[in-house]
Amino acid sequence: MLKSKGTINKFMCLLCLFIVLTLSTGFGYSSEKGKISRNIYIQDVYVGSMGLDEARKKLNDKYKIGPILIKYNDNKWTINPSDINLDYNIEESLMQAYKYTRTDNKLENIKRYIDLSFNQPQKIYLRATYDELKLTKYLEKISRTINIDVEEANIKINDSGEFKRIPSKDGLEVDVVKLKEEIYKMIRKKSISKKALDAPVKVVKPKITTKDVESIDSILGKYSTSFNENNARGNNIHIAGKSSSDKIIMPQEIFSYNKSTGSRTSSNGYKPAKVIVGGKYVNGEGGGVCQVSTTIYNAALLAALPIEEVHNHTFPSRYAPRGKDAAVSYGYTDLKFKNPYSHPIYIKNIVSNGAITSMIYGSSQDKERVFIKTEEQYKNDNLVVKTYRIYLDEENNKIREELVSTSKYKTKH
């Protein structure tokens, strides 16, 4: 009995050795030399037991690369495969299929061949490649022939109060991201349609519409201050007044004086003039710009605009009542206010004959009846001024009152 079992074991070992030797010398080459092993697919094409030429022809017939066609209205464009170096790399996949059971590892070859023989198919995918940069440039070229810039509505009010309204126009813009996705999808599926892709074009709406600027019809707040225009300070007021004028502030937007004027440097035309630094008057670039911010601030107060940021000077100003000045310093302190209305507002400054007048225009529907009052109190060497805005009804009865700011001035230089 033991002898019989030993004989069987010996026979099984010899049989296994025979199988290994047979597979390692023959099965790695399929049933015929030069052919791909059975049960192998490339993408969705069965290439098992085929020679390379036959498999190549079948793949080229199935996955022939054609041009990518794009159209918009009567315009058509063709992107040839060579334009973007598009390739399905069929040769690369053929070699993978051919060498699947022809690796340097003979045991692995045997395992793969057995798996294929027991109906476990192997699928090899075509690897599509193309030049992303070239495709992007080509689509940008197409976009330039379709795109139309949006035109924002605008309004200009000259010094005499004459209105000139410029209507808005919708723009057109190719959705390049969406178009790329459609092209990527075709390339991934290895199925480029003979039917032209419709270029996805979206309408770009203006942020400021004709209706917006048509709503601007009245002065909501107006204020003036005077100055000597025959010196450096007068020069700076002219420049700051112009740079902060003709500004449209849309609903819920915040106006920043510093942002509108930019830095007060010589390169922007500003000259050295008296400014207060550390409680002392010294020469500094942009002296005088605070008078412009103060004038705009008072117009904003009368226009009933919420004040987001305002600062008083160290000492009371000569050109504005106490509690009604707005000190600014680029990069440090600013004047900011918000448009709370459902219509845009428009800032117009007129600088002429030693005076600056700031007007805030808006819709007559938003006009409020307000007046500004201040309360003063001396505390030690300081003067504290509280500024209130009072809202009135049509019969001048007080509706409500709000504290706008609390200013603290030094009374001794």
Automatic annotation (TrEMBL):
Task: Please give the InterPro entries that the UniProt record associates with this protein.
Answer: Glycopeptide_resist_protein, Vancomycin_resist_VanW, YoaR-like_PG-bd
Which domain of life does this protein belong to? Bacteria
Record-linked Pfam families? PG_binding_4, VanW
Q: Which segments constitute the YoaR-like putative peptidoglycan binding domain?
A: 77-190
Checking PANTHER family in the record gives: EXPORTED PROTEIN (PTHR35788:SF1), EXPORTED PROTEIN-RELATED (PTHR35788)
* Name of the protein in question: Putative peptidoglycan binding domain-containing protein
This chain's source organism reads: Asaccharospora irregularis DSM 2635
